[in-house]
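The passage that follows is intended for readers who have already worked through the single-chain material. We present the inputs for a multi-component assembly, then the predicted structure in tokenized form, and finally a short commentary. You are encouraged to pause after the input and sketch how you expect the pieces to fit together before reading on.
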Amino acid sequence: MKKTLLLLLSFMLLYTLVLAGCTAADPLPNISVPEPIDERPPEEERREERILRLDEQNLGFPSVYTVSPRGRGYLLTSFLFDTLTWKDEKGIVPLLAERWEVSDDKKNWTFYLVKNATFSDGTPVTAEDVKFSYEYIQQHPHPWVSLDMVEKVEAVGEYMVEIKLTDIYAPFLTEITGNVPVMPRHIWQDVSDPHQFNTPEAVIGSGPFTLEQYDATAGTYVFAANPNYFLGAPVIDKLIFSEVSQPAQALANGDLDAAQRISYGEAMRMKEEGRFTVIEGPGFWVYRMYFNFDCPEFNEVSVRKAFYHAINRDEIVVKAAGSGAVPGNPGHIHPDSEWYFPGVKDYAFNPEKAGSLLDEADILDKNGDGIREFKGSPMKYELLVANDRVNEAEMVKSYLGDIGVALEIKAMDQQSVDSLLKEGTFDLALNGHGSFGGDPVLLARFASDKASLGSTPSVTAQGGGQWVDKEFNDLFSRQIREIDYEERYKQVARLQEIIAEELPTLTLYYRKITFAFNSETLNGWFFTKDGVAQAVPTVQNKLVYIRGTWGR
Amino acid sequence: MIYMNNRKKISLILLLIMVALGLAYSYLAPYNPDDFSSPPLLPPGGNHLLGTNNMGQDIFSALLAGFRITIGIALITSLLTTFIGTVMAVLSAFFRGLVDSFIMRLTEIFIIVPDIIVIMLFATFAGPKVWDVIVVMTFFSWSRITRIVRGKAMVIISQDTLQYTLLLKGGLANVGKKMWPHLYPAVVTIFIQQCGRAAVYESTLSFLGIGDPTLKSWGRTIKAAMDYEGIFWSNAYLWWLLPPLLCLIAFVLALALLTFDFEESGRPG
Amino acid sequence: MILGRNCILLVVLIILGFLLPRLIPGSPLSFSGEEINVLNLRLPEETFNRFRDYYVPEQPLVRQFAIYMSHLFNGDWGYSFRYGLPVKKIIMSRVSLTLFLSLTSIAISTIIAIPLGTFLALRRRGRGEKGILMLLLAVQTIPAFLLAIICRLFFAYNLGWFPAFGAYPPGMTPTDAGFAGHFILHAFLPVTVLVVSTVPPVAILTRNVVHKIKREPYVEAAYYFGIREKTIQIYYILLNSFPEIMGRLNIIFLYAIAGALFVEIIFSYPGMGTLMKAAVESRDYPLIQGIFLVTTIYSIAINFVFEVFSDKINPRLVT
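Having made your guess, compare it with the prediction:
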């Protein structure tokens, strides 16, 4: 009996120890940044604290290098760090640079900084900080911006910066100055390993918010308004992002004030119910089919055309994407983009046409097993797809099955799909990605001539053999240096014609983007032209928190 | 044969019907469960007994496919697991000494490492083929069986008849043959229990998105229903989510009832 | 003896922890040189270098193992790619939440299940007892993830009684007023689901064991000699069924971390389960390895504790 008691006692002891470890020690690695000094003007009438709660993924510590390399991670840092230029719903707007000039050869840019911007530790933002930030990013490669075309950055005066480019770069203001965060030199100059830099100093920037707390365990971010922000203090006092598995439900339950990661169906239902305001914007997110050009048959343009004719894009949008998408355009560019050219060749759903295209190319089913043969070997392929988009793959498998091409679906996690695509270890693949709207520099992903200027985030790259088209390459490197919009549009339109004619990829659909919010809290949400920063399709533009209004 | 009361008879009949449905699936299913040509989200009635899903696929056909796939995976996994587990146990009991302690330490490792963590790891890395999942599940389940069967085998091998066989320098095969009649009731019970466990495992992995995504197992149908955001907005859950759920529970419950003894002290788990 | 065996187990598992990421096909440790690209986005050079410094994939295996062991002894578990924090720090902050969930639910389940099982075994005659047993069996067959989903749906979404996600309201810190209340409220549903899924197996086992011992000759003899019923129940039956029940509890304790996995994932509870899911999804190798190590070390510790106790209680059980 005693032994039993002893046993029970020991268990209780063990248990209380664990509990004590949980609560007393509080080992949660809360990186709390002590608020410097509460400088909120006391004369302002005392109002209730305005807290806005949103859903977001856990994207790491929101300093420049420690945050996730995805677009949404970059946007978190944009609340803390400003750039020279920024974008709103209409286009480029000044931010830290109040105005700028460019030389006649379009290679020398001069930026005049605002004089009232300070970092959250009180030091003013100067030209030295800008120069330092560009040089720092050149020395410590950043996953989001590449500064290959920047030759030299000079601080001419205290508030004047000159940036010299190696060559003309048309999307300079959107892709470069709108993305390079300005970091305080006096803090970062001693940082040799920015990937480990996660102290409270690492989040000192000039942005509209300061980081009050980041709970790495729960994936919660608490941003506090920066009352001294040079564009004026934000309309909210606190901005809380937390990881939520079902944002739509959480919004309905009052656990959130706004929900970003909701499906199209959920958004439409909320719109119907009318409890929340739902806005819909162009989703600069494309879902497309990749060909591996190491397979000789995919180098036959007739095969690619036949595939496109065989796939019913409208049906995929309705059944697999739940109507939350726009059918793809053969020219690849989103129809809502200012660079979209409507006059490209179209490929209507037509299985007979697809079949006859293959017949004409002498790709026939000679042994009668229902599968066509290309130069003697049956057209059987693996279709790589991320495991949350198997419905799309099932439909494509059935469409191509109807024209005598057998597919086997290979579903893997998104990361593996990306890496297999990149290594070129696939036959056919379906994949989607953002970083798609905005400047036609995105077409760089089809340019095989890598010497040409410009880069797209590497998540969209494809490995293995490349589709090569000399006219496309030449035209691409020409348009990236073309400053005149009309002239550049003509060249970009021709690029789209080439894509539609040659089909290096089959564009299947563009996902729509939705956002639901409680209009009793923050209002004034908008969709940024061509997506925030480098075409991140979201409403998370920091200007909303400055320009918005509170309550009805 | 094991004594059967009414409850067990009912369970057995139910299971046999389920297996029969699985075998006859291709004759019974009105549609190919992959065929998405019907309009999406039809309510039950007319050509579709249980309506269609958001892709326009016939739910009734998917449910029938589940009888073949879920039960098939459960049977194959259980068969493999029971076989390996029993062989290891018999080896352990026959050779004793070093072999025994080696096998026992091995099972300890497998029991100590949380199987679901390793299964998640392997299944995500190894690839989504159904055979991969079966192999992984087998690999991390045999040790429990070895531990149970070894205890029984140890008792049996010390019985007189087997001791004679051993004295006559009977080999492993002979001893195994002699042991089988004694082991058989326990092994059958374990096999049946393992079936239930495999079915639950399969549906859990499917729900987590591990395994072949195009396979129409009950777990997949449940996941597809839960993934559809509007499942509870209308009555769709009644004919899309509930049928595979009830089939899965009925299957596992029937297995449990078949081996569970109210009067005797059966030992499930 | 027990200590020695557990030490050997520990060594074997540490070796396994070393081999596992190198055996799994598709692991970056088997890739060559520049092509290692774990996050599959352009991995910043520093992160890549840190990965290479830590794992030294180009060195011979023996050397890799030596480096791995020295890291372990120095308490350096590497640096998580996904979170940009030391693995040890992340895991330590999470493991206590998971243990809190599982140990609370195991404690509650044991308090419910053992008396329930004993009750069912000692007086099982009427239909009521059979009904309870059937119910337990039925509940046992429902996969835990389904229970969690159903609970979340009704109690969190439809009725709104309990929060549906997290361990505490976002942005709250333990020093805030009312934290404990929120903490308990958030843990309520996950613990309930765990209890509901743990009670049936323990209760059924207890019932079977007690029932078996009740039929043992010495118990029947005790009844025959007219020893007081209470005395028989406690000293003859219950105490003797203890070792077997302990065996079962041992298993349940072993799986305390893994058992809470699905429940955590469904309730977005920031414990080891959600961490595991995140690590696997983003192929965060140092983190995966760390989780594997922590769970095995925990399991061995539990195993050791149980073996020592069962040795003390019933020395003849040790073979």
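Commentary: Chain B has a mean pLDDT of 84. The domain at 59-265 of chain B is CATH 1.10.3720.10 (MetI-like fold). How closely did your sketch match?
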